[in-house]
Amino acid sequence: MTYTTITTTSMELTLPNELGYELIARDAVAAFARRLGMSVDQIDDLKTAICEACINAIEHGNSLNPDLCVQISCRVEDECLVIEVRDQGVHPFAPRGEPLSIVEKLAGMGSLRGMGLMLISQLCDESGFVSCDDVGNCFRLAFQRRQAARSSR
Amino acid sequence: MGKSDDISHEPVEKIIELRLPSKLGYERVVMDTAASLARRMGFHTDRVESLKTAISEAVTNAIEHGNQHDAAMKVVVLLTARDDELIISVADQGRKILDQKCTTSSPKIADVLETSDKGGWGIWLIRELMDEVEFTIAPSGGNQVRMVIHLEQ
Q1: DSSP A58
Q2: Mutation target vs B (from A2, A10, A11; most B CBs, 10 A cutoff)
Q3: Which residues touch B150 (CB under 8 Å, ≥6 apart)?
Q4: Do A20 and B40 make contact, defined as CB atoms within 8 angstroms?
Q5: What is the CATH number of domain B13-150?
Q6: Please, which residues bridge with residue A11 across strands?
């Protein structure tokens, strides 16, 4: 297992690949964000987004394999809190064209599931899969700290 | 979470690893993460509060004493969830190695009241609050405290 260089304002978390542990990640990352002085509203968005990203990693990237793990890193980058969620890539992410809209899903044109990435994109300032050195998928979420207390950097 | 129908009856354990900078305030991230896990394991509220206090003391010691407030040094926390207990290991990078005599002696109130520094109660508190406590040298060479809290059914 490799880790990125830890800076003075960064945290790394490794979780078992089991549904339910996304809630532990949610509470850990929320506590980290509170240390940075982020607002309650932003932290609420962050909590939902991190849960969705972890569930994707557990269910899809790691295919629910209990022998694998999910790694989360949090760091301050410029004016953003950047969170990366890494799985071990049993199932590499492959984009499948334009996703159905909520209206289309509600009209029965597709599964009601599969809205996680769209939800995350609505809650973060930036989100998406990024390339990484390790085997596996790396999903990056960035939150602008415009409402954060600057003294916490 | 942490339970299993594994027919081998081997102890089931799930491990969460947390790496944090040595900055006072980040002990709260560990407190919230461990409390989140303990609540989901079924620990009673007052046991969760005891756990948070013990963790706060252990991580603060690692930041202040073991790592001497060097924010670039890491504090590594392992939370091991078993069916009947939660094990918490807090390790620093050992800029200053803990005098083993400090880990067994109890401060005397009368003596402490005579001094300007009213600190020094952390290890005593940890021993009072946790079911098992052990001070060792971490594989990395730093100080390590291993605390166990039993889950009473």
Answers
A1: I
A2: A11
A3: B84, B85, B131
A4: yes
A5: 3.30.565.10
A6: A74
Question: In chain A, what residues touch B20 (CB-CB under 8 Å)?
Answer: 11
Interface of A with B (CB under 8 A): 3, 6-16, 18, 20-21, 23-24, 26-28, 30-32, 34-35
CB atoms inside a 10 Å sphere around CB A102: 12
Question: pLDDT at residue B57 above 90?
Answer: yes
Can you tell me the ipTM of this complex?
Answer: 0.84
Per domain, the residue ranges of chain A are 10-152
**CA–CA separation, B114 and A123 (whole Å):** 55
* Chain A closest-CA separation from residue B107 CA (Å): 32
User: Which one, of B123, B70, B131, lies nearest residue B95 by Cα?
Assistant: B70
**Which residues of chain B does A30 touch, with a Cβ-Cβ cutoff of 8 Å?**
32
To the nearest whole Å, the CA of A74 is away from the closest chain B CA by: 10
Q: Which residues of chain A have pLDDT under 70?
A: 1-8, 95-99, 112-114, 146-153
Contact yes or no for B16 and A13 at CB 8 A: yes
- Residue B10 vs residue B130, higher pLDDT: B130
Distance (Å, whole) CA A25 – CA A152: 21
Q: Which residues of B touch A16 (CB under 8 A)?
A: 14-16
Residue located via tokens 């206090």: B53
Q: What CATH code would you report for A10-152?
A: 3.30.565.10
* Domain residue ranges of chain B, discontinuous segments joined by +: 13-150
Query: What is the rounded distance in angstroms from the CA atom of residue A47 to the CA atom of residue A41?
Result: 10
Q: Which residues contact B91 (CB under 8 A, 6 or more apart)?
A: B62, B75, B76, B77, B78, B138, B140, B142, B143, B144
Query: Which is nearest to B76 in space by CA: A14, A80, A115?
Result: A14
* Residue written as token pair 């890494």: A86
Pairs of residues, one from chain A and one from chain B, whose beta carbons lie less than 8 Å apart: 72
Task: Please list the residues that pair with B146 across neighbouring strands.
Answer: B89, B134
Q: What is the pTM of this model?
A: 0.85
